[in-house]
Amino acid sequence: MALVEINDLTVNFYTEEGVVRAVDDLSYTIERGEKFGVVGESGAGKSVTAMSLMRLIEDPGQIESGEILFKGEDLLEMSEERVRSIRGNEIAMIFQDAQTALNPVYTVGEQISEVIRHHLDYGEQEAKERTIRLLDEVGIPEAEARYSDYPHEFSGGMQQRAVIAMALSCDPDLLIADEPTTALDVTIEAKILDQLEDLADEFDTSIQLITHDLGVIAQVCDRVMVMYGGRPVEKAPVEELYYDPKHPYSVGLMSSIPRIGDTRERLQTIPGTMPDLVDVPTGCSFHPRCPYAEEACTRKDPVLVDPETGHEASGDPGEHAAACLEYTDDLTGGLDYTVEVDGEEPQITPGDQRE
Ligand SMILES: Nc1ncnc2c1ncn2[C@@H]1O[C@H](COP(=O)(O)OP(=O)(O)OP(=O)(O)O)[C@@H](O)[C@H]1O
Question: 348 C-alpha to center of ligand 1: Å?
């Protein structure tokens, strides 16, 4: 049994402008111990997906339909009390902004100890010892002395490490990390991601890592789901997506990963913006921005298929699935891009830019 199995999840927000379909008939699984990445630009529905999984969608949002199975039990059917005991205990969450997770009036150590005492029923001394060990493990030097520091005495990177320690303190089965390192500089980001990965392995914790940066996913995750307009457009093992992306949107995201030694002044980004989810384009919702779009793309709604066979696929572990009409033989011109691997870094060149 998968740790998490989401089936046909649809989430709407009822706004003055109309009904925003933030998540549209979404399905995916996360296995035990797996590091699962969710990537897409702002507005793709990544955070709403995560909040649904914690059952934290609030007015004007509503989970319309679907199942969220956690260890086989549907979270959407559980009592509020049961969900509350799962949150923070079996499923923990960390956000981009460490400051919102840390209370400024208590010391960092006290806050983590309190979580441990509350969830694991530890005594005061035991909880303190576990906290110091955790602070040490997430890379906080002189953890014992720093136990009594207040959050403002920590740097941004240290605060985020403390938040990771707090999230892992109860040994959760699943850690949802929403842009956990976006606010940090790149060298600190890389170190913290490394530690997150090591700790997840050590604690045997699954991760759902949400980011707009495929480079971050490539560093940490085993498998990835690319989201666009509230839907998955590609699901694949990370290596396959990185070296052999199949959906034009994934190709666009790949081209906008910052590379060391990149001399371009600005990152190449995908022209255009995410559609207004009140009024999603017909056919493939990416077609207005897709360099390969044809007439069929304005009409036909692509489903996830195995790009090799064109047969419907879920993109569950071991499968590669992409939702593009190219793979159901509906395109005449095809997708024209090449991926070249230079060292470890794949470089993507659209057909019209090749020399
Ligand atoms: N409280 C809300 N009220 C109205 N619409 C909302 C609300 N929360 C989210 N949405 C809408 O849901 C859609 C998906 O948002 P979501 O935050 O999941 O995107 P995201 O991919 O996580 O982007 P970001 O990286 O900016 O967080 C967006 O169109 C957003 O406007």
Answer: 29
ω before 60 within 30° of 0 (cis)? yes
Q: Amino acid identity, residue 83?
A: V
Of the candidates 231, 233, 277, the one whose C-alpha atom is nearest the C-alpha of residue 251 is: 233
Q: Which two tokens stand for residue 229?
A: 């307009």
Which residue's CA is minimally distant from atom 28 of ligand 1? 43
Domain ranges of the chain: 102-152, 246-348
Q: What is the largest distance, in Å, between two alpha-carbon atoms of the chain?
A: 69
The residue ranking higher by pLDDT, 19 or 271, is 19
Indicate whether residue 47 lines ligand 1 (CB < 6 A): yes
> How does pLDDT run across 242-269, given as a tens digit for each residue?
889 999 999 988 877 665 555 544 445 6
Tell me how far apart the alpha carbons of residues 350 and 252 are, in angstroms, rounded to a whole number: 10
Tokens of 152: 């403002």
Q: Alpha-carbon distance 47 to 38, whole Å?
A: 10
**Residue 134 CA neighbour count, 13 Å, CB half:** 29
- Give the pLDDT score at 49: 96
| Spacing of C-alpha 149 from chain mean position | 31
Q: How confident is the prediction for the chain on average, in pLDDT?
A: 90
> Could you give the angle at the alpha carbon of 244 between the alpha carbons of 297 and 179, nearest 5°?
85
Cα(46) to centroid of ligand 1, in Å? 8
pLDDT digits (tens, 9 = 90+) for 88-128: 789 999 987 777 889 999 999 999 999 899 888 899 999 99
Helix and strand numbers, DSSP H then E, in the chain: 12, 13
Decide: 15 in ligand 1 pocket, CB within 6 A.
yes
Nearby residues of 305 by Cβ (< 8 Å), 6 or more positions away: 311, 312, 313, 321, 322, 323, 327, 328
